[in-house]
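To the wet lab folks,

You asked to see what we're planning to order before we commit. Fair enough. Below is the target structure as tokens, and below that is the sequence we designed to fit it. If anything looks off to you, flag it before the synthesis order goes out.
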């Protein structure tokens, strides 16, 4: 679900962020899916100060220490795959102005914490009340049909939503 509109380019989150190569035509992307439970491990990563410092630049606030998993509907998988291509996880032509924001990984106490790519977005359960968020695509992820959403708020509570509920996501 892609249509023409908007801005072109990529914002690096940190001075030493690696730029993406290639041009991006103007598009906007809308995704839909059902809320699902994750593995319950995102909080370990989300709570890391190195990540939180970068999330503040994306969300203009610290991120809630967890992600909201959205199992995307089949008709949205192609659009989501474009984000995976831009993130460098899949092969393909890197087209789109999804405003990719690079989250730098780091190493601490001999443990490696991988990088990720974020895309600013808004999420809603009713298409009336929209909440700022970002789609986060970790460099090391098993998800190919599930979007991980970060926000400054606990989305399950603020929307509110539960497993199986449909949500709408629009890249901004």
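Sequence we intend to order:
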């Amino acid at each position: 679900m892609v249509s023409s509109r908007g801005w072109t380019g990529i914002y690096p989150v940190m001075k030493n962020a690696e730029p993406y190569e290639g041009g991006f035509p103007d598009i906007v992307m809308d995704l839909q899916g059902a809320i699902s439970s994750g593995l319950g491990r995102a909080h370990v990563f989300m709570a890391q100060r190195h990540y939180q410092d970068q999330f503040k630049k994306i969300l203009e606030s610290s991120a809630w220490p967890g992600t909201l998993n959205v199992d995307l509907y089949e008709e949205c998988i192609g659009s989501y795959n474009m984000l995976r291509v831009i993130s460098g996880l899949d092969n393909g032509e890197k087209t789109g102005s999804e405003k990719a924001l690079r989250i730098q990984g780091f190493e601490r106490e001999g443990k490696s914490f991988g990088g990720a790519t974020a895309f600013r977005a808004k999420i809603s359960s009713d298409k009336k009340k929209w909440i700022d968020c970002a789609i986060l695509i970790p460099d090391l992820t098993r998800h190919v049909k599930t979007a991980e959403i970060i926000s400054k708020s606990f989305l399950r509570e603020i929307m509110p939503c539960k497993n199986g509920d449909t949500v709408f996501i629009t890249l901004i």
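Structural context that might help your review: The radius of gyration is 15 Å. The longest helix spans residues 49-59.

Thanks,
Computational group
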